[in-house]
Amino acid sequence: MPRKGARRAAGGPSVGRRAGRTLRGVRRGAQPKVVALGGGMGLSASLTALRRITGDLTAVVTVADDGGSSGRLRDELGVLPPGDLRKALAALCGDDEWGRTWSEVIQHRFQSEGELHDHAVGNLLIVALWEQLGDHVGALDLVGKLLGAHGRVLPMSAVPLALEASVLGHDPALPEELSRVRGQASVALTPGEVREVMLVPSDPPAVPEAVAAVLDADWVVLGPGSWFSSVIPHLLVPELLDALVSTKARRVLSLNLAPQPGETDGFSPQRHVEVLVQHAPKLTFDVVLADRAAVPDGESLSQAAAERLGAEVVLAPVAANAGSGPGAGSARHDPELLAAAYDRVFRMHGRIGPWR
């Protein structure tokens, strides 16, 4: 059982970047098997960091998106929403010219006055291969091979899912009333306080390869990402939750840099822990990783993590400087700093194994 308390990861940004530069050269033999679960930009941040420290990496991705290009393809063709899968594949592309080029190509969106407007190239490629092969996993593996992806991408379920939320005060005129909100896009932006999320259907089958990856992993990383619409849905797939509970892997819960407007407005880091426990009370973690600047009350988070998850808190500088370019002012992870934090966690909290 890990020590119940907060451990602060040493080293500022210069140390993190220096560590990040050296991580790519380690473990030329056996490497830690890492499975990262989530969706959207949070999972992309985690994958971009993790591919710097291991070559044995699997992403398990939510499939409840119903907005934008993914939602249109889902409605028109009855397929899984490909958008979060595409983002994960892009994050696994290398930093060489091939990887950068293909990452930009699959993320490219058409701009037109016609039906192709705002469709992402990668979404169309993935769906085309699904139709050609009739195999979700095989098609994603083929796309990954084309991109030279540094890891594998799997959907958490082969069934298109809908997300529903119980929201307090969804109607501002009725602040004490619980309402049901349906659809991932709606839940992500809902007014009021999300109290609980559910999947429709309520017991979707997990993709067998995703379950096998979790059971075979050395480390499982959950988060960061949209807490109710990208992170918690993994815990609502019964077979996947059973695997997460029973795996011998060490588990890391990676917290967000800031509350998300709408979905987790006003949530403290410890509130994020509490709602996760509410949805999966049997799931424990070894480490809760958070950016030290995003945790105003480290003692309260340490107490919540220890009591509710059996976990130790590791605080490390993982946020990028705001800067002045595109996206300035929005919180995002620095891939080198996050990689250094993950590597430190894996080395300090990992069991002695063939990959060490």
TrEMBL record:
Main location: cytoplasm
Subcellular localization, as worded in the UniProt entry: Cytoplasm
Protein family membership: Belongs to the gluconeogenesis factor family.
Highest taxon, organism lineage: Bacteria
A single cellular component GO annotation: cytoplasm
Family annotation (InterPro entries): CofD, CofD-like_dom_sf, Gluconeogen_factor
Segments of this protein annotated with the region Disordered: 1-24
Name of the protein this chain belongs to: Putative gluconeogenesis factor
GO molecular function: LPPG:FO 2-phospho-L-lactate transferase activity
Keywords from the named record: Cytoplasm
BP terms from Gene Ontology: regulation of cell shape
Function: Required for morphogenesis under gluconeogenic growth conditions.
Organism: Streptomyces sedi
Name of a matching Pfam family: CofD
